[in-house]
Amino acid sequence: xxxxxxxxxxxxxxxxxxxxxxxxxxxxxxxxxxxWERSRLFLHPDRELTAGEAERYRQLLGRRREGxxxxxxxxxxxxxxxxxxxxxxxxxxxxxTEVLVExxxxxxxxxxxxxxxxxxxxxxxxAVSIALATARGDLRLVATDVSAAAVALARGNAxxxxxxxxxxxxxxxxxxxxxGFFDGIISNPPYIADDEFADLPLEVRCYEPSVALRGGPxxxxxxxxxxxxxxRLLRPGGFLALEIGAGQRGILEELLRRSPAYDSVxxxxxxxxxxxxxxxxxxxRWTR
Length: 288
Known about the structure:
Blueprint: H1 3-16, H2 22-34, H3 38-43, H4 51-65, H5 70-74, E1 76-79, E2 82-85, H6 98-107, E3 117-121, H7 127-135, E4 140-145, H8 148-161, E5 167-171, E6 182-187, H9 202-205, H10 221-233, E7 234-243, H11 249-258, E8 262-269, E9 275-282
Parallel strand pairs: 3-4, 3-6, 4-5, 6-7
Antiparallel strand pairs: 1-2, 7-9, 8-9
């Protein structure tokens, strides 16, 4: 069978299994088997697969049909045009989180003024910190995670991206053991509410780490802890930037407006029109 035949068959199999993007999934998986970019599939549709390639493709389709995410099957995911290694140790980076990167870049001082020092809480695969370090060569980042396995994976991704010298990785819970002041603190914390978890798609609920998804009764448990702890480590005038979930703006806006530590509370929508990023500024003269 040819590339064209296998793509048609794979698409039909995944569509019947309920995949939201059966053709794309089939293309990515076949490209992975052949070690081709997806575009090459369309340039060589009549190329015959070997028996070994066909069997490997069949195995990968079976894993996807059972619900395993394509990114875990291939072991990689692109974020900010950077290819990252991913596996079940970490959440798969989402395109929506690129809005968080964009927002942080807009908050930074112009290059050359000084070297900004940033802290990321919950680094996961390293996607956000690596994207920032790639976009701004003058940054210095501290990136933490409670999971040693996640930190190990993120560190490897930073090495492959050529930015490991700009990021210090630490295993710790939230702000434990951190010292010094930061110009910005950023995080994409868990924000799925307890009663929403069961409604997540199977490929998320059953394969991605629940510790990186579940955010307590209303999904804002970690946001609350970060908002409270960040005030101690932010320089006066420094910024806090957090990704948020649907329907959480009102809760967090009220929390920040009541806090004596922050002002300039704003929100940014993602490209689907949902509130996605919360930002606030550490008040110049605040003291705990």
